[in-house]
Amino acid sequence: MVLPTKEEFLTTIESGAATRRxxxxxxxxxxxxxxxxxxxxxxxxxxxxxxxxVRGNEVTFTGDPAAVVQAGNVLTELVTIVxxxxxxxxxxxxxxxxxxxxDVDAAEVLTANILSxxxxxxxxxxxxxxxxxxxIDAHTVTFGIGPAGTGKTYLAMAKAxxxxxxxxxxxxxxxxxxxxxxxxxxxxxxxxxxxxxPYLRPLYDALHDMLDAASVPRLLTSGTIEVAPxxxxxxxxxxxxxxxxxxxxxxxxxQLKMFLTRLGFGSKMVVTGDITQIDLPGGTVSGLTRAxxxxxxxxxxxxxxxxxxxxxxxxLVGRIVAAYDRYEASSARKNA
Length: 336
Known about the structure:
Elements: E1 10-12, E2 18-23, H1 30-34, H2 39-47, E3 51-55, E4 58-63, H3 65-83, H4 90-101, H5 106-110, E5 115-117, E6 120-122, H6 127-138, E7 141-145, H7 152-165, E8 171-176, H8 192-210, H9 215-222, E9 225-229, E10 241-245, H10 253-260, E11 268-273, H11 287-295, E12 301-305, H12 315-335
Parallel strand pairs: 7-11, 7-12, 8-9, 8-10, 10-11
Antiparallel strand pairs: 1-2, 2-4, 3-4, 5-6
């Protein structure tokens, strides 16, 4: 059954309101669309301006004509996602509403598969995340800049594993600065690996989330996947590799330049960081904060910025990030 278009079932009422009726195909389980105990329906009622009435497999929207059109479009996007076999969650429904109200094809964003592994599929969950993974495909060097929880590193890791499995690259190189340790690594107990492991643990965690647990040690031992501090990149040329620099806000301008110039033939680079979380010692300028200004206009380099709206951890994380953003903006205005 073909889903109705915007124009179908739309009738203007004398009062200036409008009605739009959308018939859900009988092959679609209404619980999958409206949620268990109408959980998703309540989100739609809360976030959409139109009145919603459900009878059988038909959903009727009533209200301002523009709001009615938007509400119908949201429902159509939800049905399209369900028809792909992808289940909905409360967070996903909220993202569909937000994207559809901005005239974004939410179904296209949320059904773009990056990597299927261990019984789950990794996909972008916001428009900016989709733009980010598309930029990685289209450019040799991509910068992903945004707050914690926006998927910068996780999606880059997924693209790296995808490229390795497709034999587009021969190895994955993951690196980040161990800035928290400063020059104290030599005083920490254990071997060198023991000393740097805490700073690289988030990268290992992502690897174990995307690959079979038994294969990770083998790939690390063979050098197919390398996880190392940024200092280990100096003097190397990295060919046929997918290279990710994480926590780039904690690199100096000289360190970031050193890293970028390691690029070899057949390689891709992704640089991720959060410019609001700089841990460099006082007086040291973050290379990431200057990168876009320096590299603006350089071909084959993309900059993707994400915001608190792109946080895909617990929904409270996005609210926390947004609250801090508002506080910092307010403080900046008072001190101006």
